[in-house]
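dumping this here before i forget
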Amino acid sequence: MLYSFSMLQEKSFHEIEHEAWVERAARYDELFSQVTSQAVGPILDSLGPLKGKRHLDVACGTGHLVGAAAMRGARSEGIDFAPTMVELSAINYPDSPFLTADAADLPYEDETFDAVSCSFGLLHMAEPQRAVNEAYRVLKPGGRFAFTLWFNNEKAGLLALVRRALAGFNTAAALPGSWTQLRYADQAVNERLVKKAGFNRPVFQNLALAWRTADAGVVLDLIQNLSVRTKYVLDSLPVGTRQDVLDRILAGAEAQKVNGLLTMPWNALLTCAEKPARVEVQ
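structure:
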């Protein structure tokens, strides 16, 4: 899929993200689950003991967090807005239930779950506050909500490679405001999100994650097959310029190899907040 300015006029951010993840589900695990899977343990730890508890993973992707929660004894299930992701989740974890649903309109009654998680999903949503509000609604009093977002790492990692490669070129394409509401991790922003929904003050944890490969060319695969925002900026360039930038990104990735291995930091912020317990009036 080639992103263009005209596409932005014709489709909403939600529609573009939905089409992208429906199309890209098949290669997600191959390209990127090695990074996101590193956050599964910390996310589940932050939710507290899960044995016998009902857990929902929002934007579940290929289902690995649900599978890990089930291994801890949770009655875990997942939802994703991309039916192709849901299909893969059901194949990966046939004993757990998965539904195609929107995080901003969860198909559950109030106070259904003991714990809710969202691993790197909120940044792909047009209305992240609605998703946080929905997590609050479906949680039982005293239940916890945990989510992760990437840090804006300008000095290392894929983003730094792309920015250095773009230096000197005219990149007039600006991302629409609806595409950048919650693009990167920020403690103050995250705290406002959860408090506005009704949660108690959150607890934060920095996660030092990393992506490793011996094939620097996979970096270009990541941009073409998993990125939406970065791909839009690159697709807005003239064809020749775009190829020059991609060549620079590849050269930069090759130059960062140590003993034949490319290691790219992909640091993240884990936020966990609790729904206030119900106070019993005597």
